[in-house]
């Protein structure tokens, strides 16, 4: 079992979301390389797994995150978090309402919310969520045709939010570099990626490239 730390927003610098393929051995290898390269937050999003499978995966993956003082979140499975097998949960508009989710996981667990507009960001903050993933900022192949916010609108929403925000959707190294150039008031705490790391031939190198892009504004 694990005791969740209070959220340090710096852990959101690069959030790696798993891709639902259900291959635990592969995830251990990819996430091991990602955390070794500097990723500090992993969202385990494997909807086809049972609670038992997810708890087993948490047992295997927690050492990777705890070795770097990172954060392991599970997507939507509040029961796994309540059993203290992960540091927290990521929920969205199809999950239990965030105030109810907070009651289930308790005050010490980290709770993230997947938001798409100002109202959802405000609701997440009011319900005591610790952070939000705002999406889709750029067009994404995982949800083709879905309207995206664009960086200017995402920056406006981020500046108005009352909780830390990380951006999700269509993000690679070029988009990470664009984030580095957002004015400080609207700049997110970090970015969240799936295919940019999970589909990379070298996940560690991909993490290095993303973090380097985030750290280097144009002209810097």
What amount of the residues lies in strands? 15-25%
- Count of discrete structural domains: 1
**Count of separate DSSP helical elements:** 9
Q: What structural class do helix, strand and pairing data support?
A: alpha/beta
Shape: globular
The second-level CATH architecture is Alpha-Beta Barrel
Q: Would you kindly provide a written description of the structure presented here, covering whatever features stand out?
A:
By secondary structure, this protein is of the alpha/beta class. It has a single domain (9-214), classed as TIM Barrel, CATH 3.20.20. The chain contains 9 helices and 8 strands. The protein has helices at residues 24-37, 51-66, 78-82, 98-105, 118-126, 151-160, 173-180, 195-198, 203-214; strands at residues 14-17, 41-44, 71-75, 88-91, 110-115, 131-134, 165-168, 190-193. Helix 7 runs parallel beside helix 9 (203-214). The chain is globular and about 45 Å long.
